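Subject: Sanity check before I submit

Could someone independently write out the structure tokens for this chain? I want to compare against mine line by line before I put it in a report. The sequence has 378 residues.
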Amino acid sequence: MIDYQKSSLALISSILGHYGHNNHHERLTVLDQYLKRRPKNVVLLILDGLGDAILRRHRPNGFLARHQIATISSVFPPTTVAAINTLTSGLAPIEHGWLGWSLYFKEFERFIDIFPYNDSLTGEKIELAPGNGKDLLAYESVFSKIKTATGDLVKRYVVHPETIPQAGVDYEVRYGKNFEEEALAIAQLTEIDEPKFIYAYFYEPDSSMHVLGTDSPEVGETIASLENIIENRLGKLKDTLVIISADHGLIDISEQIDIGSLPELSDCLVMPPSIEPRCTSFLVKKNRQEQFASAFKQKLGNDFLLLSKAEVRSEAIFGPGSEHLKVDDFLGDFLSIAIGSKTIIYKGNLEKASFSFKAHHAGMTKDETNVPLILLMS
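---
Independent answer below. Compare away.
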């Protein structure tokens, strides 16, 4: 299970506390010790997919490993949608509602891949009209909270791949064509004579591991390249604390299970499953719920936990805090959580690249939940 007192949620709570915003979640004590030194600049750099196990496997003696001070938890599910929105909101997934990639919105009678805003079942791009799904999941960002808490004295910046546009509300954006450009942008920002918080994100090594698997030598080369750029560009920044972590790790996938090929399960469903292939929501016909639970545990019980909605809530799977109004819709009746190396998919009539991913995330294995806490401070 996720230790939220030593997690990405605690990490961002410490950063908010550093700037005078009293977040309602536990802070990360080990990070607070460094923030007490009052650096002029705080940089939070998230390398997508660089889980603790991945770093140890490929670069056990590298620059990043040598500056790792702790291993912490991501959030649940350990996936980009949930974790990044925790880091940009200061809220647990149960509070912000961004539970995973594909969410069912009853308002539109549609499954929506929430980041790209596509129809999950057809791949169709959906117009972002007022009142869209992202609007329903809107929250006050950490950038707004820092602006208010400091009276706008601390400037906020986001450094991001140019292929993933950002809104630019309560912060300025710098884009990079590659990680070298992003690292250079971070370094240049720290030279501006003003206190600032910089949030930076890059999509590797996650992107490579989905295609190649976690053990690929090419993945190791990608991580080594990122590491080299970080050491050269960010290793000795003046009056700056650089915090490096990840949104999740990954695990190699041994089998993709198409729920549509198991009629003893699919015939019980009201609609296709959603959220994530390793954290999956099922809305089940009222008169088939016992049958579904029994068949699921018989067929898939060695590789997945199956929790009722009540159990999900009682065990606070998605973290502490008040439940977002949309979470009840997203959860369905049952939630499966991967504890092995398999995924659950629904193919329908759509062929997605994710159906052939060699590695994935969002389950409850340590390879997915554990991420490094790396600190650089001159």
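---
OP: Matches mine. For the report I'm noting this point. The CA atoms of residues 197 and 221 lie 30 Å apart.
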